[in-house]
Model the fold of this input.
Amino acid sequence: MRTKPKFKERVSLAKYSHYKIGGPARFFFEPKDERETAWAVKEAKKRKLAIFILSGGTNLLISDEGFDGLVIHPAMRSIKAKMKDGTVEVGAGATMADLLKLSAAKGLSGLEWAGGLPGTVGGAVRGNAGCFGGETKDAIVSVRSFNMGTMKFVTRTAAQCAFHYRDSIFKRNSRKRNGAEIVLSATFRLARGDKRAIAKAIREKIEYRRNVHPLDYPNIGSTFKNVPLHAVHKKGSSRYARAVKSGVIMFRGSRFSVKTDPLPVISAAKLISESGLRGVSMGGAMISPMHPNFIVNVLNAGSYDVVRLIMLAKIEVRRKFGVDLEEEVQVI
Ligand SMILES: Cc1cc2nc3c(=O)[nH]c(=O)nc-3n(C[C@H](O)[C@H](O)[C@H](O)COP(=O)(O)OP(=O)(O)OC[C@H]3O[C@@H](n4cnc5c(N)ncnc54)[C@H](O)[C@@H]3O)c2cc1C
Done:
């Protein structure tokens, strides 16, 4: 017999945060299937509770105050591969690491770029996570979600998900007052490939990340987005064109590479570094000397320590370069 689902109360979110930072959720629920997801939303609405979806917590700075509402932590983690047509149906709560493990074991190619990408499939779909030239959208066939406004289940084709750079219909709808959606599952189409070659390609990405990211400390990845070149040189100007062509600019006494990401950008890490902030710390948080766009939790940092470093980086980069850094991470 099915036991009646029940919200947990006052659950510490630090445990669910990649940062190991965050106060308690007033209510907390881990739906194991679509039915429980719909039940939780209905129950929260009945009790007039705000809802937040927390998955891998790899892109979130959670306040020490916690969340005064219901935190839904999707626990649909099944991964089903159909070798006949190379499709893999994955629950939103499965980790990208587990999906990659399966793809290597079955010899299914198309997601190797995601080696070392932390977080869940739901989070990756919502933000169209990407790196090394790949994006989540590239292998998506369809996505199933639950609309918390209409209380209806929706299945969309990849085209209907309207994926863009680090963006999707799910991300855009989450800003709507009455149309936020919970990603429930996604179906990917992968190609038959050589098991060993797939495993090797994944391992290489993991190794690369280990060498360039400060992974020894809890972190939530890049704090700021890279800065569009047009924030420095006017788009269409000869200086802009020259910078794109040469791949380098001198700007207020510092030399910056111009990367394509996918539009021409300069590195937020370099801007922070050139503002003299490498290794600067507040409380238990520190701007990583290894990769200054990472703020790492070195010693039981509180959310306010990280917020103060975010503010400091914005102020100093603005002062030195006249450029506004924009957060990549979400603060709740
Ligand atoms: C070391 C490190 C490296 C990283 N490198 C990259 C990288 O190379 N490329 C990249 O794109 N990102 C990168 N990230 C950021 C992060 O890993 C991704 O954005 C990831 O896809 C987020 O997934 P998550 O499950 O952790 O989501 P969370 O952090 O839990 O949530 C992020 C957002 O998505 C929403 N959300 C989560 N799950 C769902 C769901 N099922 N339905 C609806 N909304 C949902 C949340 O409400 C929140 O708004 C990195 C992070 C770290 C820590």
About this structure: The mean pLDDT is 96. The helical segments are 34-46, 96-106, 121-127, 169-174, 195-212, 238-246, 268-274, 303-321.
